Every structure is written in structure tokens, then in C-alpha cells.
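Figure 6 in text form: structure in, sequence out.
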């Protein structure tokens, strides 16, 4: 599985750093929603879902956390430790967010509004959908 990690350009000077994110320029989709998680307990694993069509970029703008990505065939763990790095998550990718530092703020840029109907919350259903879309691939899990 190819993980697409973005390193955004900080505009730094002697006052500090600033990162600007523009749709279709720094972010490969129209940003229709922004949400963020904070005060997440260190032992908590969030996510546990995939999306039928939503695309997202996750940025840990403060602190750190890890993202487990699973395309139904392979799993990869992506650490997010810098406010200028982000990971792109396409549709049909199962994600879990974990190992949050106490001060972590995980911001999500999303290509669409909140729609519970776009969620795949059952892992077996997710595997079924992925296999239907690429039936010839050998599953590793
Ligand atoms: P949830 O899907 O459990 O978060 P995650 O899977 O990313 O850990 O969402 C937590 C709650 O927030 C749930 O009641 C739905 C609500 N919510 C919104 O109202 N809008 C949103 O954009 C998101 C992501 C969640």
C-alpha cells in the first residue's frame, strides 16, 4: 500500500511558523469540512471505520499520534509528529488513530460534509467491499 504523506511548506520567520493549506493546491480536494480531536486518552483507539467516498487529510497540529491504515490487503502505521506533515486517506481505507500524546490535537480536512451513510463501520463488510472491487488480489489478512 502506498502511503501518501504530505510535508506542507511552513512560512517561518523570527516570529514563528505558519502553514497555509489551500484546496486543490496543497490539499488534493475541495475542503468541505474541518474537525479536530483533542483531550484524547492515551489508551484510546479511535476511528475503526472506512468511508465509501470521503477523502481526508489528517494533520496532528499539536503533539503526536499514530494512524493505522488498512486497505484490506496490507496495513501500515503512519506516525504524525509534526504540525507541517499530513497523511492522505482515500476512500475504502480502514483507519484507526491511536497512541495520542496528552497534548495531541488531530485535525482532519475532509472532502465532504458529515454523512453517516458514507461510513463503513463493520470490518467484515469493509473486507467484502474491497474484495468485490479487486477480486483478483490475494488477501494477506
Ligand atoms: P466518531 O465517528 O465516533 O469519531 P471517530 O470515528 O473519528 O473516532 O464521531 C464522534 C461523534 O461526533 C459522533 O457522535 C458523530 C459526531 N461527528 C459529527 O457530528 N460530525 C463529524 O464531522 C464527525 C467526524 C463526527
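Output sequence:
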Amino acid at each position: 500500500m502506498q502511503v501518501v504523506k504530505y510535508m506542507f511548506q511552513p512560512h517561518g520567520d523570527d516570529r514563528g511558523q505558519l502553514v497555509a493549506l489551500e484546496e486543490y493546491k496543497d490539499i488534493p480536494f475541495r475542503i468541505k469540512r474541518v474537525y479536530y480531536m483533542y483531550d484524547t486518552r492515551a489508551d484510546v483507539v479511535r476511528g475503526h471505520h472506512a468511508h465509501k467516498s470521503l477523502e481526508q487529510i489528517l494533520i496532528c497540529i499539536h503533539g503526536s499520534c499514530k494512524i493505522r491504515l488498512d486497505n484490506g490487503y496490507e496495513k501500515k502505521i503512519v506516525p504524525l509528529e509534526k504540525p507541517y506533515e499530513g497523511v492522505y486517506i482515500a476512500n475504502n481505507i480502514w483507519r484507526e488513530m491511536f497512541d495520542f500524546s496528552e497534548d495531541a490535537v488531530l485535525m482532519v480536512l475532509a472532502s465532504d460534509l458529515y454523512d453517516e451513510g458514507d461510513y463503513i463501520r463493520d470490518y467484515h463488510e469493509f473486507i467484502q467491499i474491497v474484495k468485490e472491487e479487486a477480486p483478483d488480489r490475494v488477501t494477506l489478512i
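Caption detail: Residues 4-132 form a domain with the Jelly Rolls fold (CATH 2.60.120.10).
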